[in-house]
Amino acid sequence: MDLSLSTRNVSGPGGDRTVVEVGGEIDVYTAPKLREQLVELVNDGSYHLVVDMEGVDFLDSTGLGVLVGGLKRVRAHEGSLRLVCNQEHILKIFRITGLTKVFPIHGSVDEAVNATD
């Protein structure tokens, strides 16, 4: 399966956010496409990102690495990277790896955009 990506800008109480909607599988073959998108957004000045993973069917360690790398990039600019995920099999990966302590994970895009913490 391929990876689909789309972006849009939204405003919320916490300010402007760029939502990256991801669909398909984030694995060793498709993760570079996501990495390129995140790098491009940060290079263009988007430092507050919401990665919407509701359409993600599969996530491996390469995909986790890309998300962690994206978080490091935005934090270098005082930014944030929030995840949207409500699929139990994907959430389990974040729990097992301890990344629930690293990433703010929300149940919906609206919740992530409106978060001010």
UniProtKB/TrEMBL annotation:
Residues 19-116 form the STAS domain. PROSITE patterns: STAS. InterPro entries: Anti-sigma_ant (IPR003658), STAS_dom (IPR002645), STAS_dom_sf (IPR036513). Pfam families: STAS (PF01740). Belongs to the anti-sigma-factor antagonist family. This is Anti-sigma factor antagonist.
